[in-house]
Amino acid sequence: FTLSIYLSIYLSIYLSIYLSVCLSDSAGQFFSSGHTNNWAVLVCTSRFWFNYRHVANTLSVYRSVKRLGIPDSHIVLMLADDMACNHRNPKPATVFSHKNMELNVYGDDVEVDYRGYEVTVENFLRVLTGRLPPSTPRSKRLLSDDRSNILIYLTGHGGNGFLKFQDSEEISNVELADAFEQMWQKRRYNELLFIIDTCQGASMYERFYSPNLMALASSQVGEDSLSHQPDLAIGVHLMDRYTFYLLEFLEDIHPASKANMNDLFKVCPKSQCVSTPGHRTDLFLRDPGSVLITDFFGSVRKVEITTEAIDLTDPIKEVEERPANGDVHKEMHSYVDQLPVSEIIHQKPKQKDWHPPDGFILGLWTLILLVFFQTYGVKHLRHIF
Amino acid sequence: MSKYAAAQKQAEPAVLQPTPQPKDDFQEELVVRPLHSGDIYASFQFRTLWETDFMRGNKVSHYRLFPKSLGQVISKFSVRELHISFTQGYWRTMQWGQPYLPSPPGAELWVWFQDSVTDVDATWKELTNVLSGIFCASLNFIDSTNTVQPSASFKPLGIGNVTDHRFLRYATLPREIVCTENLTPWKKLLPCGSKAGLAVLLKSEKLFHSSFHSQAVHIRPVCQDWQCKTTSWELRQTLNVVFDLHNSGQGKREWSLFKMFSRTLTEACPLASSSKIYIDITDNPEQFELSPATSLLSQAMVLGDRRTFSVYDLTQQDTFGSVRSLNLLIRWKSTEGDMLRPLLHAERYVAGYGLQTGEIHTLMYNHHPYRSFPVLLLDSVPWYLRLYIHTLTVTSKGKDNKPSYIHYQPSKDRVRPHLLEMLVQLPPNSVTEVTVQFERALLKWTEYTPDPNHGFYVGSSVISSLVPSTVAMDTNSTRERPLFSSFFPCKEESSYFVRVYTEPLLVNLPTPDFSMPYNVICLTCTVVAVGYGSLYNLLTRSFQIEEPSPGLAKRIANVIRKMRGVPPL
């Protein structure tokens, strides 16, 4: 009898331990990636109407990233020129990614944070490192922390070791690597995925040296990335090949998808892309096969369970808004006269603030005084005055 | 609300009464005016009135209809009035008449600050940055080089007694592009968003395929009632659009809501106290016909003329008819008839040749047959066009016309622009021409934009005037009036206030060859390398005599001779 009791107790203890291990295992799996929020920085660096395809590239990645859950407040979108409302666009307020105008990647709900002349190397590096002037609004900042996974997508014209911004300046791969190192030292990212679609794109990730970086490029050093197809109605090429196939791949991904990075490396083989896409994973600590696409492109919110209880029993007292009974006799307000002609004609000139004399005036007077004293001498001053 | 109060009273008598929330009110309206050229002009206005005080110590924390982002901007920066507009296209006054709310091409921002602000310039800089984040526009390019402080124009449109122009700032960005990314946050400020009411018509694909598109936000304090003892804050969001007959209309003089906006209306915004559509039928029935017919008519004195409007009230269910959707149809019957010629009209252009000098000409037309009226001209020219004010001439009908008030603030290189304000009396039925010569400056090579050969923009001139009207204007500001006629306050019956914007100018500055630094570096490095290299070699190279290595045959012969013990060759 006692044996059966001991057996049942032993069994129950064993079962509870087993169950808790199972739960913590699945809970452990749930938390395996280590990030709690997602950010995306999408940059198009080219200006002028014939670079329509770069804006379409960036907007299609923006669209996929929004669709998979990253909100506008966590996306910093930088477009160097306006293609949708450009006067050469035969269909205003649209940017198409496929000929026959099938997919309008611009859409009706788009928020561009940096546009036009604001897309410069300095602003891009400031966004990455967080060194922005204090009055910069929140939508223009990358407010990531050490548990953020960041997706950075760059597109434009590039060469061996540089990327051209707006036809007037370049960013080099050394600068980019240093910016990522600054981000690492300031603990501004947990893991970072860097995708670049330019000619000789692989040269841009050659110099990375910070941990937890994974990079993809559309072409190797010495190769050009090619554009996909022109549209005869719009008159320009609509998208680049690599991003076109990347968009096709991402359209199949949904927020609960289990596709991993190895599938992303297979996007756009040489037969479709003509250039050879490259990738770099040696700085990344996890195995790429265990990294989900939605870890970077989607925004899966993790929940942390706490066992503490919060006491909500006290009623919240409303602050009484004291009505303005004090001023019984309020003054009568009136609208201002929009063009008071007589008042304007007889307007007194504004009192200018007095500024101390400028350096030039001070120097001139010093010279005059020096010459004066030199000519007449100090001892003759009594006779002059 | 009352059940909750009763429950609270029963539960704990010590809890305070929930205080009544400040009254707020939301109205929306759409005015459609068919134009003589076959185009159609649609003007949306959304107005939120809120009786609250942003300025006193207690922070406002409960927002209902008024958007929180703008409320926080008002209280943080002590704003008394804020007017911001984004426009794509230029308003053609001679073809389309006067707009209900004028705006210049690009972005325009003018703000009156409260008296309590100590450093207006720093507050202005922060305000432009915050607004650039709210509206997704590059308003952070507004700095001291394009901000001016007008001395007589831009008097406050809301209530107030003190008009110290130290608290006024005005800036334009003529280059600013307007696209869907500006419309999206603008729509999000509306109480119903773009889900219900008139805002469902605001689809960007149709709105930007137009000749003129302008969206604006106006915040000002207004009178609550006739005695004007209490004030409330008014937020007006306006959107003006002109659809072209040939682009959007496919050449047919027939417009409907579906053709203009690709949507029809199904309901009014539930949060709106009034939701109306006004169609300007003053020229009806000879000109065009309107369907579905409505019995509601309204007359309003707007822009110096008495206009008749057909009114559709969207809060009444029977407006939508049996199909539960409203699609207005306006069909032209004939194309004759003249337009009422606008009394005030202005143009501006650059004359001259070459990249050294030029001349700015501003023409102001007074089309009134016998009345003359004064206009206030405000010109803000960037510092890189150096104006020669001694060449300023104002002529009307060939004779010199001396302005009764001139205010000129010269520019300072890279610090502030030129500001020229003049009060000119325009004689009846005449053209007044203002000319001033300028010289173009050479900028530093880092100050050029990435596309300098496009040119540099000069903002529009602003002409403010009290134009005599043909009918008596309504001076009672608190009577229930449609929104489009109650924007500019009216002090006297015989004239109405109008603001006309000229075209922005595009001038080419002398542009250097940007590849020259690269060329210079290459040439210098080559010269230095060749010159220094040769000199270094000459100085440090030492010569040694060396036997040339013998050929193959000789080497074999030498090996054989060595084996034989004979001296080599």
From TrEMBL, chain A:
Coiled coil: none annotated. It comes from Amphiprion ocellaris. Keywords: GPI-anchor biosynthesis, Membrane, Signal, Transmembrane, Transmembrane helix. The keyword Transmembrane applies. GO terms for cellular component: GPI-anchor transamidase complex. Pathway: Glycolipid biosynthesis; glycosylphosphatidylinositol-anchor biosynthesis. The chain crosses the membrane at residues 359-378. Signal peptide: none annotated. GO terms for biological process: attachment of GPI anchor to protein; GPI anchor biosynthetic process; proteolysis. GO terms for molecular function: GPI-anchor transamidase activity. Heteropentamer. Part of the GPI-anchor transamidase complex, consisting of PIGK, PIGT, PIGS, PIGU and GAA1. Interacts with GPAA1. Interacts with PIGT; this interaction, via a disulfide link, stabilizes the expression of GAA1 and PIGK and links them to PIGS. Belongs to the peptidase C13 family. This is GPI-anchor transamidase. The active site is at residues 157, 199.
From TrEMBL, chain B:
Residues 1-22 are annotated as: Disordered. The lineage of its organism: Eukaryota, Metazoa, Chordata, Craniata, Vertebrata. It comes from the Eukaryota. The gene is PIGT. Transmembrane segments: none annotated. This is Phosphatidylinositol glycan anchor biosynthesis, class T. One of its GO terms (cellular component) is GPI-anchor transamidase complex. InterPro entries: PIG-T. GO terms for biological process: attachment of GPI anchor to protein.
